[in-house]
Structures are given as C-alpha cells and as structure tokens.
C-alpha cells in the first residue's frame, strides 16, 4: 500500500490493535514526500512512522521511505524512488505502472491530493511514476509525488477527508468534477475502486449520493 501524510495520519489510529491485519505482509510506500530529512517534523515518513508504523509489527525492510542522501538532487531522488517501485513490483506485475493494492489519500482545503496542486503542470504528467515540484503553494516547497498514472492504476484508492475546512472542496470534487481539481482527477482505471471516507462536517454541502458506513 501507499500512504499520504497530513491529517490522514491520525485517522490511522483505528488500525492499531486490529487483530485481523497481517502486518508482516504489508509493504508501505509514500504517495508523496516533502524533501526534508526523514526525522524532520515536515516529513510524511516521520509522521506516519510516529503515528502508525512504530506501533505495529511491520518489518522495517517493508517500509520504503525516500533516500535521504539524495535531498539535494530532485531528479535523482525521483529516479531512486521509481527504482524502489520497480524493484518491489518487478516480479508481480507486467503492467506499465505499479499496481498498488491500496493507495490512501488526503485532500487539502484547496483540493490538492498527494503533492498534486490545482493548475500545476504535473496534473497532466502521463509518463513518469514519480515526479518532483519545487514550487508547492504549501510549505515545504520541494516535494516528490506519485503521478496520476500510478495513483489511478491502484486496485483501490481511498480518500479520508474530515472537518469543515474540507467541506467546500469535497463539494466541488464530487459534484463538479468538470472543474478538474486534483482530487477529482483520481479515477482508478477499471476494475479499480475509489472510496471516500468523510465525516458529517466535510460532507455537509455534498450532493453526491452517500452510502453511510459506520465503523
Ligand atoms: O501536504 C500534504 O497535504 C495533503 C493533505 O493534507 P491534509 O492535512 O489537509 O489532510 C496530504 O494528503 C499530503 O500527503 C501532504 O503532503
């Protein structure tokens, strides 16, 4: 699976203590990463490590952070993360893109997902698996991110969006996909599935038919 950072991290607490999950079978990649050392407060790896990975028995070799020795060279950083994906998926898939079982996504209050921001040229990247930006409108400016070809080839993509600050963008994402917000562009190719896990505050303006699901 691949996981995002941000507010999603705390929602993963529900997995702790789950007796059904076979943690030793998991491999964890990062949907996007801020180009900072892995122990920096801004690092998505640091966040997910703190909130989830340090609390469950996932073998450390199954966790795939960016190579922190390459923070000064964004091209090299992306190439090395693509190679990490190639190595992991080499014996499993013949597809042109890695096919994750699950990609967990968040949505920013501006409708961005991963490090794919509104009106950014990366929204139309169709070739690379992992790409960099150095002009993120949200700090820190330098990041690497999965591109849509990777995200949209997953078996399952699941967004988690909570709180009133996500209300407007959830409405636009689901009810006005023609506006092309980054979060609207997540459309897994057949037979992939897309789920949205939202709370009442985030969903208050949404017209899209909902299937309430209580954990
Ligand atoms: O910068 C980022 O933001 C998004 C959304 O974060 P949220 O805190 O508004 O939920 C996150 O999904 C992404 O991984 C992260 O790098």
From TrEMBL:
The keyword Cytoplasm does not apply. Residues 1-192 form the Glucosamine/galactosamine-6-phosphate isomerase domain. Keywords: Hydrolase. The keyword Disulfide bond does not apply. It catalyses: 6-phospho-D-glucono-1,5-lactone + H2O = 6-phospho-D-gluconate + H(+). InterPro entries: 6-phosphogluconolactonase_DevB, 6PGL, Glc/Gal-6P_isomerase, NagB/RpiA_transferase-like. GO terms for molecular function: 6-phosphogluconolactonase activity. One of its GO terms (biological process) is pentose-phosphate shunt. Its EC number is 3.1.1.31. Pathway: Carbohydrate degradation; pentose phosphate pathway; D-ribulose 5-phosphate from D-glucose 6-phosphate (oxidative stage): step 2/3. Hydrolysis of 6-phosphogluconolactone to 6-phosphogluconate. Belongs to the glucosamine/galactosamine-6-phosphate isomerase family. 6-phosphogluconolactonase subfamily. This is 6-phosphogluconolactonase. The lineage of its organism: Eukaryota, Fungi, Dikarya, Basidiomycota, Agaricomycotina.
